[in-house]
Specification:
Length: about 160
Amino acid sequence: MQQLLPLAEKIGAILKDRRETIGTAESTTGGLVSAALLSVPGASVYFVAGSVVYTLKARRAILDVQDAAFAHIKSVTEEGALILARVALQRFGTTWSISEIGASGPTGNRYGDAAGHSCIAIAGPVERSITVETGSPDRIANMRTFSAAALNLLLQSLTP
């Protein structure tokens, strides 16, 4: 969390100052992005909701994203991450949302992605997405790297 907290503090200050809100849809980060954002005092002003949609069942139940939304794309892509971010934005009624989907390790996921692969997206006034490849099977290190990348992408999206 030490790497994530300074990013979350900057993000929290911007969101509070602008009176904007955020929600999350996380997979392989396992809630670390939400935890970092919530660690900032006064987070209740900007943090509306966080979800860990680690399985298809959770994605359906929590976000109401049906399989048809991914019928013509591979789930773990920037396009797939954007779908989740857009749905979270709408479902939580926030100004911003952030989503992450990938394979943290030590092995790949059921979609054929190798460990160390993640796609992250931001939805809101600006939409952005990135792919992160660590090439590492280290689950904990990947989760931290993916979370830092997600917060960095959000910070870049918030600042011109």
